[in-house]
Amino acid sequence: MGKLLLLDIDGTLLNSQKELPASAFEALQQARVNGHELAIATGRAPFMFPDLRKKLNIETFISFNGQYIVRDNEVIHTEALDPEMLEKVFRFAEKRNHPLVFMNGKKMVSSIDYHPDIDESLKSLKFPHPDTELDFHLDNDIYQSLVFCTKEEEAQYHENFKDFQFVRWHRVSCDILPKGGSKASGIEKLIASTGHAIENTIAFGDGLNDLQMMQTAGFSVAMDNGHRDTKRVASHITAHVDEDGLAKAFAHLGLI
User: Fold this and answer.
1) What CATH number should be reported for the domain holding residue 193?
2) Neighbours of 166 (CB within 10 A)
3) How many structural domains is the chain composed of?
4) pLDDT for the residue numbered 141
5) 143: closest CA among 88, 104, 86?
6) In 3D, which of 135, 158, 136 has the Cα closest to residue 147?
7) Are residues 187 and 152 in the same domain?
8) Where would a tag sit more exposed on the chain, N or C end, judged by fewer CB atoms within 10 A?
9) Are strands 74-78 and 68-71 parallel, antiparallel or unpaired?
10) Active-site position among 8, 175, 210, 244
């Protein structure tokens, strides 16, 4: 059995222009020919990357940082945020003028008609400001939420909501996840389905939400454009994503 390659999207598969480099595409196809299995591991929602999955012919993925896992186009695990606790976060954030975005498996909605922090952070992913829908988080399973605040303001959420994790991915935005939820826990659930041993997994990433995945996988590769904490725990640091970093890592590891 080949390796299970776990691939982050932003800053790993996609470059600074949110494009898939030709070198990465070629490396991924060759790795598959060589007997390795490809899986995406991302903080994004499934509806945020269907075109990429189609282009790469990948239908196995860990999304929402571990809260929604699909194996060969079949959902094998979901874990929604506790709705009562999420409502408490919403009320807490509302008093501090911190908007939220809520996501289920099909779409995302905002708690406010417009906010510049939402606009700024989602534009970095090339997504527009979402629409507002009253009580969406009360009427749907929410697999991930975003709270928009500065790094300094984030501490109060950690202090007041210890059953949730708050993981920063942008200057003004944090993912809200269940305590213990992560790409790392997603790996463990996925390999139970694929049959891979943990030592035969390789994680590729760049962000803080990849840190636990790096520590859990059998081997880990950080992009040179990655966060310093992520690079610190990685087994290997490859070149910048804009400098064919993913393809270079595949070559270095003998995957191609």
Assistant:
1) 3.40.50.1000
2) 19
3) 2
4) 95
5) 104
6) 158
7) no
8) N
9) antiparallel
10) 8
User: Residue 164, SS3?
Assistant: strand
- In contact, 230 and 211? CB cutoff 8 Å: yes
Domain boundary among 178, 210, 232: 178
Torsion-angle region of 149 (φ positive above 0: left; ψ -120 to 50: alpha; else: beta): beta
Predicted confidence pLDDT, tens digits, the chain (256 residues): 899 999 999 999 999 999 999 999 999 999 999 999 999 999 899 999 999 999 999 999 999 988 999 999 999 999 999 999 999 999 999 999 999 999 998 999 999 999 999 999 999 988 999 999 989 999 999 999 999 999 999 999 999 999 999 989 899 999 998 887 778 888 989 999 999 999 999 999 999 889 889 999 999 999 999 999 999 999 999 999 999 999 999 999 999 9
Q: Are residues 33 and 59 in the same domain?
A: yes
Share of the chain residues as helix, strand and coil, in percent rounded to the nearest 5: 40, 25, 40
Q: Which SS3 state, helix, strand or coil, does residue 150 take?
A: coil
> Looking at this protein, which amino acid is placed at residue 125?
L
Active site residue 8: yes
- Tell me what pLDDT residue 123 has: 93
Q: Could you tell me if 34 and 54 lie in one domain?
A: yes
Query: Is 106 in the same domain as 139?
Result: yes
CA 24 to chain centroid, in Å, comes to: 19
Q: Which residues contact 32 (CB under 8 A, 6 or more apart)?
A: 38
Residues in the chain, how many?
Answer: 256
For every residue of 48-73, which 3-state class applies, written as one string?
HCHHHHHHHCCCCEEEHHHCEEEECC
Provide the Cα torsion 65, 206, 71, 22; round to 10°: 140
- Bridge partners for 102 per DSSP: 109, 145
For 110, the domain range is 83-178
